[in-house]
Amino acid sequence: MLSDDVRSTFLTFFRERGHVRVPSGPLVPDDPTLLLANAGMNQFKPCYLGERVPEHRRLMSVQKCVRTVDIENVGRTTRHDTFFEMLGNFAFGDYFKREVVPWAWELLTGHYGLDRDRLWVTVFRDDDEAEAIWRSLGVPADRIQRLGMVDNHWSMGVPGPCGPSSELHYDRGPEFGPDGGPAVDGERFQELWNLVFMESLRGAGDGKDGYEVLGPLPAKNIDTGLGLGRLTAILQGVDTVCETDMLLPAFRLVQERAGREYPGRHGGDVARSMRIVTDHARTAAFLIADGVLPSGDGRGYVLRRLLRRAIRHARLLGIEGPLLADLTGRVVGGLGGSWPELVAGRPLVERVVAAEEERFDRTLRQGSRLLESAIARVSETGAGSLPGRTAFELHDTYGFPIDLTLDAAREAGLSVDEDEFGRLLEAQRRQAHAAGQGRKGDAVARQDLYRGVLARHGRTTFVGYDRTSAEG
Ligand code: ATP
Ligand code: MG
Ligand code: MG
Ligand code: MG
Questions:
Q1: N or C: fewer beta carbons within 10 Å in the chain?
Q2: Alpha-helical runs (H) found in 336-417
Q3: Angstrom distance (rounded) from CA 36 to CA 26
Q4: Taking every annotated instance into account, which residue ranges of this chain make up the domain Alanyl-transfer RNA synthetases family profile (predicted)?
Q5: For residue 460, is pLDDT > 50?
Q6: Residue 86, beta-bridge partner list
Q7: Is residue 347 left, alpha or beta, with left meaning phi > 0 and alpha meaning psi from -120 to 50?
Q8: Position 455 confidence tier, pLDDT thresholds 50, 70, 90
Q9: How close is the Cα of 80 to the center of ligand 1, in Å?
Q10: Burial letters for 439-463: b for 16+ Cβ neighbours within 10 Å, e otherwise?
Q11: pLDDT-based confidence at 462, cuts 50/70/90?
């Protein structure tokens, strides 16, 4: 099944159940508490809070998502990408658990044909009702697991709508890791679909056992997120999204330019670098098409980091000379049919990534000169170790990755004062974190506003749907 069919199967299924499609929200959200769109529900946050009446009670979308928290995961796991498409169906004061759970099961096992013996389910720790519904569908008790706040209670990470969730996981088989179900974190049990019963309001706290739940939302709502890349990889019998039709043209180019074939998921650093370059090129193309440009902070810095990481891994693969313009061109080739903004933005995307690649290469050359003279100085004094401050300056001013510095020092028979480097880096992180807290602070301030929502609507009947709305 091609990725286009995976998308359209989802949309047809929910259209037949009364859902109206809305376009993906932009990657740059209209929400001061959010750096980049990271879930289908983002654009409906005001609807869940009762601040806005959605155009229909049942909506569906294919949402562009970027998760910076997963940057380090790309390459380390086979299931995390920095960009992914989230298929979602949403209900506002309409259907709830009794509808959405059987539908999810029917779609996955009936329409996508997933083997029901490979599907596992998680429910929130005290959600007897959800468990009973899964049991009534024939899911055996030993393939239903109960998890706590961290895994099975969803929020946007800040005060706002939240709720218990129930998730569907796919068993990729013993060759991917030990048995034990989704409660065992690892590669074997891959989370596919999150069904959130969006019924509560989250508070500010974020303790070990999760956050404080302030009270009920004006209505009981549904929010689901199904990862298109993960599902497509399973349906196409491959291990990663890079090997699906969505990214294959780009992935092939990386292999051609590296002069070697993808060695498979056990292929160590080479496999990892190939996936990182491909993933980051896709994310960069989508970000630039949505108006983000490389810069020193915020969204622009996320983009710059991704591009630099992609270039770094391209060089590690032995790819010299410009790659990214061609590579993002291939991304547009593979995904432009579903995402017209990529096609429209293609000239800009190619120009921006080419300029950034040239700039970073220059940086690498300048950094190399600085590094070489520092190494020469240290060698003359016979100190044996490069100061952590030099490594940090290279990192901070030139964007020079620490592993490059370590490599070069090692070749010259020197070590690097990594403790000092770590301390300086940590101090810088704390500063950046303080800036990030500003954004969270906004969300915390809004908590009072949300409490107002609670006070207004309390536990009374939700009356947001008095007006009628025609299906479109
Ligand atoms: P995981 O536990 O695997 O990190 P998650 O619990 O963070 O996933 P959700 O926030 O529940 O993910 O998002 C809903 C769905 O989106 C997931 O079930 C998964 O299919 C998909 N998804 C989430 N993060 C990623 C990612 N980094 N790359 C690809 N797909 C993802
Ligand atoms: Mg995650
Ligand atoms: Mg999860
Ligand atoms: Mg999840």
A1: C
A2: 340-381, 388-398, 402-411
A3: 9
A4: 1-472
A5: no
A6: 63, 227
A7: alpha
A8: low
A9: 7
A10: ebeebeebbeebeebbeebeeeeee
A11: very low
Residue bearing the CA closest to ligand 1, atom 20: 227
Name the percent of the chain lying above pLDDT 70: 92
Q: How does residue 363 score in pLDDT terms, banded at 50, 70 and 90?
A: confident
Q: From the DSSP assignment, how many helices (H) and strands (E) are in the chain?
A: 14, 11
What residue has token string 């939302």?
A: 217
130 CA from centroid of ligand 3 (Å): 18
- pLDDT in the model for residue 469: 37
Mean pLDDT of 142-168: 96
Q: Across residues 116-138, what is the average pLDDT?
A: 98
Q: Which ligand 1 atom lies nearest to the CA of residue 38?
A: 10
Mean pLDDT confidence for 21-28: 98
**Calpha distance 335→247 (Å, rounded):** 8
Structure tokens belonging to residue 465: 């749907």
Q: Which domains, ranges and CATH numbers included, belong to the chain? A: 3-236 (3.30.930.10), 247-373 (no CATH), 383-445 (no CATH)
Tokens standing for residue 65: 């998502």
Angle separating helix axes 402-411 and 388-398, nearest 10 degrees:
130
Q: Is the pLDDT of residue 280 over 60?
A: yes
Q: What is the DSSP letter of 118?
A: G
Q: Kindly tell me if the per-residue pLDDT of 154 is higher than 80.
A: yes
Ligand 1 pocket, 398 CB below 6 A?
no
Structure tokens at 462: 């939700």
Q: How far apart are CA 257 and CA 374, in angstroms?
A: 33
Distance 51 CA to ligand 4 centre (A): 26
Q: What is the pTM of this model?
A: 0.87
Mean pLDDT across 346-355: 98
By DSSP bridging, strand 144-147 and strand 119-124 are parallel
CB of 194 closer than 6 angstroms to any ligand 1 atom? yes
Q: Are 47 and 209 in contact (CB under 8 A)?
A: no
> How close is the Cα of 242 to the center of ligand 1, in Å?
16
Kindly state if the Cβ of 86 falls inside 6 Å of ligand 1: yes
CA distances from 106 to 4, 115, 138 (A): 20, 12, 12
Distance, CA of 460 to CA of 446 (rounded, Å)? 22
